[in-house]
Amino acid sequence: MQCTVEWNGPEGMLFVSKTGSGHVVAMDGAPEGGGNNLAPRPMEMILTGAAGCAAYDVVLILKRSRQDIAHCNVAITGERADTDPKVFTKIHFVFTVKGKNLSEKVVERAVNLSHTKYCSAVAMLEKTAEITHEIKILEA
């Protein structure tokens, strides 16, 4: 896996990442940090990646468990250290899963498996952050 990140200077802090899979992602900074607020912050991308990784796992596990899943949404919040390096110290996931006759036990198992076995992003982030989650199940 690889990517390249290029600064689109000289004004601002806009960076464009080209991924090994052929996709492009922009990142920028806040105006007070020299950016122009044109794209997500790099640390927001880390949270986005963790939420995407966990959501991917949960959907896949639920499908393989023959659950009739129609929708999955993950809201994620992170708190960072006050001093450099400002690593994440707390991260909270809220999984909202919608489907027909979903088993609460199976959904909880899917989230737990993602967090404890499959999600590489969570495995890395839990080295510095307390990871918590909650689950909301909605009937389709």
UniProtKB/TrEMBL annotation:
<dbReference type="InterPro" id="IPR015946">
    <property type="entry name" value="KH_dom-like_a/b"/>
</dbReference>
<dbReference type="InterPro" id="IPR036102">
    <property type="entry name" value="OsmC/Ohrsf"/>
</dbReference>
<protein>
    <submittedName>
        <fullName>Peroxiredoxin</fullName>
    </submittedName>
</protein>
<dbReference type="InterPro" id="IPR003718">
    <property type="entry name" value="OsmC/Ohr_fam"/>
</dbReference>
<dbReference type="Pfam" id="PF02566">
    <property type="entry name" value="OsmC"/>
</dbReference>
